[in-house]
Amino acid sequence: MENKNLGIVITIVTIFLCGLPGLISICSGVVLAFSNPEFNDPVIGVFFSLSLLCTGLIFLAIPIVAAYFTFRNRSRTVKPPSGDEPIPPPS
To answer: Is the pTM of the predicted complex or chain greater than 0.85?
Structure first.
């Protein structure tokens, strides 16, 4: 990203819109998994807690990916070979 200020703003916005709800979802999934809620079928509670954990992990990964693409160093440029260098002899 060329404009670092825009990248910082995008990262902060994704932290508030995706990271915090992701953390809340993970915490809710953990609490639901270790507590014993009264569901008609116990499998529903397991699937519900696993879905909260997976959704939270996905939401938590979004700000990490946004920060990676914002702050990565892309200064590695490959210099093309110049035309005025001599051609090496065949071996």
So the answer is: no
Angle between helices 42-71 and 20-34 (to 10 degrees): 150
Q: For the residues 4-33, what does the mean pLDDT come to?
A: 91
Residue type for 1, please? M
Query: Are 50 and 29 a contacting pair, CB within 8 Å?
Result: yes
Q: Which H or E run includes 1?
A: none
Q: What is the DSSP string of 74-85?
A: ----PPPPPTTS
Range of the domain at 21: 4-71
Judge whether 87 lies within some domain. no
Q: Tell me the C-alpha distance between 50 and 30, whole Å.
A: 9
pLDDT at 76 (0 to 100)? 64
